[in-house]
Structure formats: C-alpha cells, structure tokens
Design brief:
Pfam families: Tyrosinase. With 385 residues, the protein is mainly α. The chain has helices at 2-20, 29-34, 36-55, 76-89, 105-116, 126-143, 239-245, 248-257, 261-269, 275-278, 283-292, 309-325; strands spanning 66-70, 152-153, 183-185, 202-205, 214-215, 231-232, 354-355, 364-365, 380-382. Helix content is 38%, strand content 6%.
Amino acid sequence: MKSLVLLASALLVGSVISAATAEIPKFTQGEIDSGKAIRELGRIAYDNAMARAAKATTGCTKDKVRIRKEWRNMTMEDRKGYQEAVQCLMQKPPRHTGLDGVRTAWDDYGALHYYQTPYVHNSATFLLWHRHYNWVLEKDLNDLCGYTGAFPYWEWGLDCGSVGTMDTSPVFDGSEYSLGGNGKFVPGHRAGIGGARPGSGGGCLTSGPFSNFTVNIGPVGSRNPLQYNPRCIKRDLNNDICSRWATLRNTTEPILNSPNVEIFQAVVQGDGRWPEAARVGIAVHGGGHYSISGDPGGDFYFSSLEPGFYLHHGNIDRMHFIWQNLDWENRQTISGTNTMFNSPPTTEAVLTDNMGFEPIHRNVTIGQTMDTVGGTPLCYVYEPW
C-alpha cells in the first residue's frame, strides 16, 4: 500500500511541477557548466522569495530580510568582520557543561554536530537542520560578537577546474580577508577520500586568519572524542575533489533534475539508496567538505569546527533555497526518517518533530525551518552571485 501511495504522490508531484516550472528557462550544457544557469535560477528564486516577503505585514517583512552573499561579493569590511566575529566566538565561554574538551562557544558547535550527526545526515532533517544550524551561528555572531554584516556562502564551482583553483580562492588564499590559507604541504599524504589525488596541503595552517586557532575536541576515532585534545587546524585544499564533485554543473543539475525533495536530498548527499544518487559519488555535500579536508574539516562528526564548514553548508542551503523557490507551493516537504540511513529504523519524520539544538539554542520544529522568509524565526534570502 505504501509503495502505491508513494507512486501516486510521485506522479502527482511530477505533473504539478511540470506545470509550475513551465516558465523556467531551458539551458544548454554549456550554460550549466559556465554558471549562467545557476545565476538565472538564483535570480528567479530570489525574486520569488522576496515577493512572498513583500506580502507579509508582520514578522519577516521585506524591509527586514537579510541578504546572504557569496564570499567574493561581500565587502572587504564584511569579510573581515565575519572572520573576526568567528574568532571572537572562539574566545567566548561554552554553553555545554560537563564536557572536558568543550572550552569555547565555538566548541559548542562541534559538540552539537557530534551528537546530532547520526540523526541529521541521510535523513529527513539533513537540509533543514543544517539550515537552522547556520542561522543559529549567524545569530550568535550578531548577539555575542556584534557582527551585523552579510552571512556568507561559498560557491565551490567558482574555484574548481578551468575557472580557478582552491589555493587562489578568496575564501582560502591566506589573505587578511580570507578564512586563512592552506595547510603546510605534507609529502606522501593521502587524500581525504579514497580514489582522489592528494591535495596541496595536509599540515597545519602556517599563515593568515586561524593559523593560531586551536582545535580542542575530536577526532571522532579517538577514545573519548569530547576529551580536551588541543592541536592546530590542518587543511588539505584539493582541486581534484573540487573538480570532480563540486563544480557549477554539480551545483546546478540537482536543482534542475530533482522532481521532489526525496530525490533532491539524495542527489545532494550522494545517498546510494536511490539510483539517481548512486551515480554521483560523494556528490556536492561530500565534494565541498573534502575539497577542504584536513583536521577537522575532513572529520564527518567534527567538521563544523573548520571555519569553512559554514560557507560550504551555506551553499548547500542556497541550493535548497533555489530548488524550493522555483516551485514554492509544492516544495514545502520532507522525506525520510530521523535516523541516518534509517538505522536504526524509525518512523517517518513529520513537520511537527523537534530538532535538537540545545544548549546553544532553543529547539525548533522541522516545519519552522521550511521557509527562509517565514519569520519563525528565519528571515533571509540568497543573493545570486
């Protein structure tokens, strides 16, 4: 019976989306690969979301909407301000108690991601939990550290293959207005993911912002991952991984080719339980993470202690924002359970389920995070780069 219901739903969704997206332009492969397609899709999504905000009389009205920007489109003042606010959070006291290694408010984010990883990846909450996670950070940077500028995202494809390199990215070029540079090159080191060539770093950051940053907890394979374990931050910027799994094509095609959220979230994560996703390897989610790699960037559980994590997940959220706002009426949905790969098996998630954010923020329901201009509490859009 369930399979028949799913089939009927898929057919219905497919027919609705076909009609609803009739005005979306058709793109050539060249336009997809060059970024012209994603810019146009981003513009349509931005306009549609802002039109909804313009109709609001309370909550997230158009004049209150915050504009998120690609890192290279931010002012130098905002880039510097964001980076300094993150460093400020690394000096604030933690909200977790009784955890030996959690020494700062930044460590709070690592501990929360560690605890929630088995529930918020390859599950119904992957997209929306991380959406709210980034929003909580944005609020902390504002409330605790006074940062009021744009919250950033990183379009990986602008730094991959023929269009650029990871080492020269304004996000990771090591300049005063970056998130620091690459790690010191370690001869003979392995790539963060099997089957890829090693990156151009591997060791501790040697200069630029965060070169003095101390990672306090992790890695996940240690005897007690939450025990105090101070060490440098390491990076291994990897152009091979970026060019294979995080290109402008990799960003755009999931948006164009996913008829429902079940397929969209599977293709974004490379969830091999779906044939459409089995063909894309580690996909853009893994591609963005392992383009940075290192410690903690390549640690599935503790990667949120890497400052680049939030720009990476900003782009994942931007993809979801665009996909939703191309057909808003039919894309306020979730699919799956509340455990990773449904292991152990759990019931299907519903919009009224709570997502865990304590102690760094009050809990919210899945449904409260569905609309970035919903005002309960989200109120932001993504500016096309």
